[in-house]
Amino acid sequence: MFIPALTWKRLVASTKKRGSKKSNGALNNNYQKDVAHLNHENVKKSVSCANLSTYEGQTLPPLQGTDGKIPSVKSITSSTNYPSDGSPKRVIVQASTSELLKCLGEFLCRRCYRLKHLSPTDPILWLRSVDRSLLLQGWQDQAFVTPANVVFVYLLCRDIIDGDLVATEHDLQATLLTCLYLSYSYMGNEISYPLKPFLVESGKEAFWDRCLRIINTMSAKMLRINADPHFFTQVFADLKNEGSHEDLSHTLDR
Fold first, then answer.
1. Is the model's pLDDT at 252 over the cut of 90?
2. What is the pTM of this model?
3. What does the angle CA 80 – CA 83 – CA 85 come to, to the nearest 5 degrees?
């Protein structure tokens, strides 16, 4: 029996196709089995990781918030555990942005005792004005003045602003906005920010001199406040307590 060459080539080609389909099917079956096995192993690992809620019998304290969620822009809650007589004690501090700004304004009024006509609302207006200006100009998508950032500004102001050296409100505004600029640079979401909203002087030399002085003085604490939850909570509580001094003074006046 003689088979033409062309017919023989077609027969061989069809045989190869059927063989390749069978081999591909076997490979696909093996691949699906491997995938199913890996998925099963991943599910087991995920369940085991989810059950790791404690480490050496101690619960890890959250950086911000008591429920594990990211705090909202309007308010923030900070908690930490301090050992006392072998038993942990949880310290919770909660405040809104407006409350912390008021506490910051009252702190600055007490610190800058030479400024007789300074109102606690004046520093708040300076901070809000810069924040609003950057929003309107499109330099940021959301407000920067939030509870956590107000705590950061307070950290800088507490160690930098010297009441004996602040003679005018202009001096206070210049130093406060310099602290705010460094807070934006360190805590802000953008890569850079314009300098103009933070300037209240004609020249830039004094501004940059203050920036360098603040960085040299506060660099370690600026890093620590984001790395150490206990330190953040302590600064948070200190700022919150600044408002209680004002209430106490009103009570004594009565």
1. no
2. 0.64
3. 150
Structure tokens at 99: 């409350």
- Listed in sequence order, the residues at least 6 apart from 60 whose beta carbon sits closer than 8 Å to its beta carbon are 54
How far is residue 191's CA from residue 184's CA, in Å, rounded to a whole number? 10
Cα(175)–Cα(179) distance, integer angstroms: 6
Using left for φ > 0, alpha for ψ between -120 and 50, and beta otherwise, residue 68 falls in left
134 and 190 in contact (C-beta within 8 Å)? no
Residue 149 is predicted with a pLDDT of 96
**Alpha carbon distance 133, 194 (integer Å):** 10
Burial class (CB in 10 A: 0-12, 13-18, 19+), 230: middle
Q: What is the mean pLDDT of the chain?
A: 76
Per residue in 31-84, pLDDT (tens digit) is 566 656 655 555 444 433 334 333 333 433 444 443 433 344 455 655 555 555
Amino acid at position 43, single letter: V
Q: How confident is the model at residue 236 (pLDDT cuts 50, 70, 90)?
A: very high
Phi and psi of 162, rounded to 5°? Answer: -105, 115
- The DSSP string of 141-191 is SS-S--HHHHHHHHHHHHHH--TTT--SHHHHHHHHHHHHHHHHHHH-SSS
Q: Which two tokens stand for residue 244?
A: 């209680």
Quick one: average pLDDT of 175-194?
94
Q: How far apart are CA 8 and CA 5, in angstroms?
A: 5
177: nearest Cα among 108, 116, 225: 108
136 neighbors 162 (Cβ within 8 angstroms)? no
